[in-house]
# Entry
Amino acid sequence: MTNTLYLPELREMLTENNTAGLQEFCTALHPARTAEFMEGLTAEEAWAVLQHADLLLRVEVFGFFEHQKQIEILETVDRAAVAEFVGSLPPDNRVDLLRDVRPEVVAELMPLISTDERRDIQRLSAYPEDTAGAVMTTQFARLSEEMPVGRALKEIGQQAGELETIYYLYVVDREDHLRGVVSARGLVSAMGKPDVLIQDLMERDLVTVNVAEDQEEVADKVARYNLSAIPVVDDEHHMLGIITHDDVIDVVVDEATEDAHRMGGMVPMVENYLEANFVTVWRKRAGWLSCLFIAELFTFTALASFEDAIAAILALSLFVPLCISTGGNSGSQAATLITRALAVGQVSARDWWRVLRHELAMGLALGLTLGAIGFVRAALTPQDILGDVSRWQLALVISESVAAICLWGTLAGSMLPLLFKRLGMDPGFASSPFVATLVDVTGIVIYFSIAQACLL
# Structure
């Protein structure tokens, strides 16, 4: 049954206050499917349906709503009811959500949230966006070194209902310094030895992230060590929270989206494409396009400076699109490869010399390949179009120009992401349109300089 067909039935149950039917709807499906079937409901209707689920299930279904619908619910539903619900959301999720809710609504909600939860929200909100502190959750299983296994099992049983994950149990001292970690599997395996101390089971060689560390670096660590969660500590090694694998997936998706948008030559968008404000989308796309358009105007200046060469040999103008597109394509290809390699940790800014040597050889090989194709195409040009110019001379100029521009585009495309990384900028700024624009202008200069030297 499609989502659209299910909506009338849901609305009918709401109208009739069919409690039994709505409870069955909330519990019969996976929470993700439940949220999917509720897509067409208004914020008030969706909230009314959620009231027929217990609190834990309500939180789970809510987590699968579109971000915009979550915001609408918080902004339109009764403040007292929403405040109690917000206090039950995972700490990292509610902070992310409240960042996008209207400030006046947040100001009304905060006094209604319990003191402990309000302090937690304020503490997590203080961390800069895109850092480990901004994406961590403060709910994690904690044990002490002197605790025996039997008591630890009872302690975890009491904590489990409030925790997002218990894959790892973190061992801390009285000042909350992180001392070690015990896997849930390891603790359960030791059930037959209830008097064994946790310090005899825990692993002391830990992989951690600093609270100020960039979220992209956090994702790299989780992926490299194949972790389900990673602890977050401060400079004194106090345990502050954990980042779970589902949060890492969100980080990876966000970073990939940002890179994709920047590689396409636009400001990254967090809004839903079809639901985003038209002016917002226009502003984010028009800025980069305007800058690139202004940069492309230099192609006019470059062509004007070679006016005599074009007038003397009209056929040169026929091959301008071929030559400059070669540079743009090769540059965009190299920029994409290097940006991706930087993102997954295959190269770093310190490897610029190795990358340069590799791309120099690759650029020469690609240039010779494309140059050979260009030579054949130019040699097939009818003589009546060429005028007094020998087709073989023109073919040689085209092949040399294509090879040189391809080499230049490859080098520029590979070095720009590394340069931006070295300057502390996102390598994604070395977008395909940016590289193509740069190589277009310089490609014209290379092309006509070779033509002047060989033909005029």
Remarks:
- The radius of gyration is 30 Å.
- The mean pLDDT is 85.
- The longest helix spans residues 391-422.
- The first strand starts at residue 142 and ends at 143.
